[in-house]
Every structure is written in structure tokens, then in C-alpha cells.
Amino acid sequence: MSSKKILIVLSDAHSFPLKKTSGADAGKTVEQPSGFFLMELAKPLQKILDAGYEVTFASPKGQEPAPDPNSESLLAFAGNFYERRRENELIERMKRENGFAKPRPFSTISDGELDSFAGVFIPGGHAPLKDLGADKELGRVLRHFHEKSKPTAAICHGPYAFLSTKQAGDGSFVYKGYKITCWSDAEEKVMETLMGGEIEKVESRLRDEGAEMVEGVMEKIGSITVDRELVTGANPMAANVLGDQFLKMLSAH
């Protein structure tokens, strides 16, 4: 019988660096408020819980995660007030029952304990750009799931965390040659226009490390990519199907 525990990786960051290209701060790097993208976390999380899995939240230092302000707007939910309320209530319940407000620091999860997890999930939002890509302990954690071929799901900016594998083990990027979908450079350029600044590009960074990036019209509208133990998606529209595929992979493992 496979373990019924899932590790969910979060960022401690409540902002990310934005290099301003216009306005009064042009030329300066400012901290742009961010965090986890609500529906990218809540939709797969609800499916994971409904399937009877126990979840453990973890982050670099164990600080309380913040939602990305953009992800809490009614615009993000296409005006669906009830859906937004349901997802906020889920996060509040996780704070009360599952230690969401105090995630486990990665360093406190031993290699032995990692054996007890069936899979790992990394939601998006811009926050991972700040503290997940270079985290050595996260690199160790992700290498475990990779080496054991355990289902690994990431969405939007979540795949940026994969870069951390270069900080652990033999220093190689373990997902080299994998097909991966993430928040695309094209989508990020739209955000740059809205925010008036330059943002680190997840797609380009992963491609530079040897990942085979899968981006296009289908990915923009919620299509996911599966390669070996990895399932990845580009944006909030992929959240439901990513959750379903992750569960399929868990039950098959």
C-alpha cells in the first residue's frame, strides 16, 4: 500500500524583485507584493484531500505563506464570489488543522521522513522566484522524489523550484531533457507591461538548464505536460486537470 502523505512546497516570500523600466523608480529594483496563487494551490489541494491524502506544508524557513494579491481578486475568479470564498475557507481550514501558517522548514524533513511521502506538489504565484530556485534543502527534497520516481506536480511559477536541484547532490539539474510546461515567457512579458518592469523568466531559465519546454496555445488554455514522474501546467486554467493527473499518477505508483 502506497503512503497517503503528500508534501506541498511553499515559498516564504511575500514579494519578488521587479526591475522597474518605467515611472519614477525606473532603473531600480523594487519588491512587488506576491505569494502563492490561490486557485493554483486550492484546486489541486482540495482534490488531494478529497482522495484521502494527508498533506504536510513545507517552506525554506517555515514562515507563514501569503496569497498573491492578484489571485484573491474577483477578476481572477471571473467574478465567481462563491468559488473564491470556498478556496479562502479551505486555506483557513488548513491553518487551523494542517499547520499551513507554520510550514515545516525543509531542513527539518529528514531523508528518512521523505520516504513516507507519496508525492510532492509546488503551486505557483511569483513568490517562488525569490526563494525556491537556489534553496539547497529544497534541492535535496526534490532529488529524493526524482530518484524514487515519485509523482511531482508543479504549476505556473512552481517549476522554478526545480532549479534548486543544482544546489544539492552532484550539482546537476536532474530534470534535464524532461518536457516541462510553466508560466511562459510570453505570459510574463504581459505581466512586465502591466507592472512596468522586468521579471525573471521561468521558461528561459529551465530551457537554459536543458529542459524541453512545452509552450503554445494549448498550454495557455490549461493543457498540462506529463513526462515520467513530472506533471506540469502553465497557469491557473491548468489547476483542475493538473490535480486530476497528479492523483492518477499517485494511484498508479
Question: What's this, in brief?
Answer:
The chain is of the alpha/beta class. It is built from nine helices and twelve strands. The longest helix has 17 residues.
Q: How would you describe this structure to a colleague?
A:
The chain is of the alpha/beta class and 253 residues long. The chain has a single domain (5-252), classed as Class I glutamine amidotransferase (GATase) domain (Rossmann fold), CATH 3.40.50. 34% of the residues lie in helices and 18% in strands. It has nine helices and twelve strands. The protein has helices at 38-50, 81-97, 111-114, 128-131, 136-147, 185-195, 202-208, 217-220, 239-252; strands at residues 5-9, 15-20, 29-33, 54-59, 104-105, 119-122, 152-155, 179-180, 197-198, 212-213, 224-227, 230-233. The strands form three sheets. It has a seven-stranded mixed beta sheet with strand order 5-4-1-6-7-12-11, with helices on both faces. The termini are close together. This is D-lactate dehydratase. GO terms for molecular function: glyoxalase III activity. It comes from Aspergillus clavatus (strain ATCC 1007 / CBS 513.65 / DSM 816 / NCTC 3887 / NRRL 1 / QM 1276 / 107). It is an enzyme of class 4 (lyase). Residues 36-248 form the DJ-1/PfpI domain.
